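Meet today's protein:

…
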Amino acid sequence: MPSREHIIRLSLTSLTLAYILNALLSDLGRGIADLLMLLLFIVSMALMMFEMRHILLLPPLASSLGLAFEYIGLKYGFPFGGYSYLGFQGFTIEGVPVPVIIAWGAYAYTCYLASSHIASGRLRLIAAPLLMVLLDLALDPVMVERGLWRWQAQGEWFGVPLSNYAGWFVVSSLSIILYSLMSGGRDLNVKLPHYAYIPYLSSYIPILMISGPSSKLPAYLAFSLALLLLLK
């Protein structure tokens, strides 16, 4: 039977490959790249359940909360600020693109695993949302430049309002806290290997690869900060 360490390594490798292959295969079409990413993501979760038996709850919980707050945000401009989606094709739920809904769950899962590298115990309830916000400091300017969504008012962070990042922190915190309550907080003290942070760094790769002239600076600034946390 594979050892605990071997299973964890396979789970983290699957998650890392999910992001890397999603970036490298994007030229073949978003459908293929996104489907492969989803499959590898599921494999990672299935394997991680041997270490964190309730981890399967986190992605659907984060996606559900993301959908709810995205709907409120599109309708009322709270808590992210006024914005609208433009360039997504395919299915939406109440105006929210399905890839965005899935991304909330995938990022929450990735950031929660990575938070083990920089915090322990209840501090992970803060560390994981902060990693989510740091990732969005790279993501949002890139997506705005590519015309996938736009803000009603020019914001302070390369055109993105700071309210967006406050909203990301609130929604991410709610997701992590509710997950911890639902799972009894049993895995807050689980110490994953230091390389649990690698999938989080790999989540920047698809963003960096599609960054353009005006979004490259914020994307690489956020990635540089993420790299500094690796040295902790």
